[in-house]
Amino acid sequence: MGSSIHIVNVVGARPNFMKIAPLMKQYAKYSSEIEPVLLHTGQHYDDSMSRVFFSDLGIRQPDIDLGVGSGSHAEQTGKVMVGFEKALLKIRPELVVVVGDVNSTMACTIVAAKLNIPVAHVEAGLRSFDRTMPEEINRIVTDRLADLLFTTSEDANTNLTNEGIGEERIFFVGNTMIDSLLSLRHKFEAPGVRARLGLAEAPFVFVTIHRPSNVDERSTLAGICGALGRIQEHIQLFWPIHPRTKKMLTEYGLMSVLEKMTNLVVAEPISYLDSMALIASATMVLTDSGGIQEETTVLGIPCLTLRRNTERPVTVTEGTNELVGNDPDLIMERTMDVLRTGGKRGKTPKLWDGRAAERIVNVILERIPGINPVM
Ligand code: UD1
């Protein structure tokens, strides 16, 4: 057994935090073998999009924050690359761990690969086969360059082998985001959250919308708001609004449309524990998020996804998810059907059992030189 190895763990945007937290907790069990560094690129920077998640998830605040902030894709990716290269040259870790599919994931992978530092990608192999999504480009580039590919579902393994990636690099380990959910489930307390956020003691639908394909065009966003207007005539809606969506609603003059909806409660982005507590107690969810498709599947809550495709097909084939796209009439029709029938039941996908981080760290301990020179 060699001396301890340094692992730089990258987070950048909101959905990354719950994927890295279980790894940080698992590393702590190997404190003489692994010295983890938690690095935040600063892609998301509002307290409500970032800081609050670390305390909710029970992990320390980042050791390093590159503070890159918002920008066009090229600006943001470029700024992350410049900052991350400087950090890696100082730390010289034995491994970089990236999670998910945001710009920070791809940017840090490119930098590490060029410095010949091995990269592990957690949540590898997901494909929507839709290259108009920025995340799809991030996934393809990251998986092409990463050395260890940790997957959440067997379809992801198939996608990777179809792209010519050797099986010896691919490990089906389960879902670290679901590790977070299962380990913190006892803290989801809906009644207090509902009262604090102004929700009435009545059934409600939890809504999240932030994809560029749904919010960046006025007509699409207006159509979705129209559908929500019709749905709230039947059931209370709760919508914590993402900063991108808020910006577009304001720019397109749609805030006044929302203000007229008397059965819609809007909020600023909410914390992890608050959102999980509310999703777990919602009648159903309307979303275009990637992660929420998986979380609703595990919680057994029906989910209508406002997209035409998903990189997480197991949530449709086995879980509670259904793709409805963004046509207002179809959103309305499918929502009313779920309210009438109770929606899909589903089952929990294989290995989404709370032990993904344990499996990942076991692979790392076996494969990284300096710990055990097999790689
Ligand atoms: C990013 C990810 C997306 C993920 C989402 C989760 C990419 C390409 N996209 O999208 O995959 O689903 O995060 O939230 O990486 N803003 C703030 N405060 C913040 C962060 C952003 O006000 O803390 C605003 C800015 O106006 C910014 C806009 O939101 O321009 C978009 O932020 P950005 O990080 O570019 O992409 P997201 O839409 O958040």
CATH H level, superfamily name of the largest domain: Glycogen Phosphorylase B
- Count of discrete alpha- or pi-helical segments spanning 4 or more residues: 17
State the total count of DSSP E strands: 13
Order of H and E elements: EHEHEHEHEHEHEHHEHHEHHEHEHEHEHH
Bound molecules: uridine-diphosphate-N-acetylglucosamine
Strand content: 5-15%
Q: Provide the CATH architecture of the largest domain.
A: 3-Layer(aba) Sandwich
> How is the main sheet built?
7 strands, parallel
Gyration radius over CA: 20 Å
- What name does CATH use for the topology of the largest domain? Rossmann fold
Would you tell me the overall average pLDDT?
Answer: 96
Name the overall outline.
globular
Q: Tell me the count of domains.
A: 2
Low-confidence runs (pLDDT<50, min 5 residues)?
none
CATH class of the largest domain: Alpha Beta
* Distance N to C terminus: 14 Å
Largest beta sheet: strand ordering: 3-2-1-4-5-6-7
Class per helix and strand makeup: alpha/beta
Helix content: 40-55%
What does this protein look like?
There is one protein chain. Helix content is 46%, strand content 15%. Helix 15 (314-317) links the parallel strand 12 (303-305) and strand 13. 49% of the residues are buried. The protein has two domains: 5-174 and 355-370, Rossmann fold (3-Layer(aba) Sandwich), CATH 3.40.50.2000; 185-341, 3-Layer(aba) Sandwich (Rossmann fold). It is α/β, with parallel strands linked by helices and 375 residues long. A seven-stranded parallel β-sheet has the order 3-2-1-4-5-6-7, with helices on both faces. Strands 10-9-8-11-12-13 form a six-stranded parallel β-sheet. It has helices spanning 14-27, 51-57, 73-91, 103-114, 134-145, 154-162, 176-184, 190-197, 212-215, 218-231, 243-251, 255-259, 272-281, 291-299, 314-317, 328-341, 356-367; strands at 5-11, 34-40, 64-65, 95-99, 119-122, 148-151, 170-172, 204-208, 236-240, 264-267, 284-287, 303-305, 321-323. The site of uridine-diphosphate-N-acetylglucosamine has 18 residues, from helix 1, helix 5 and helix 11.
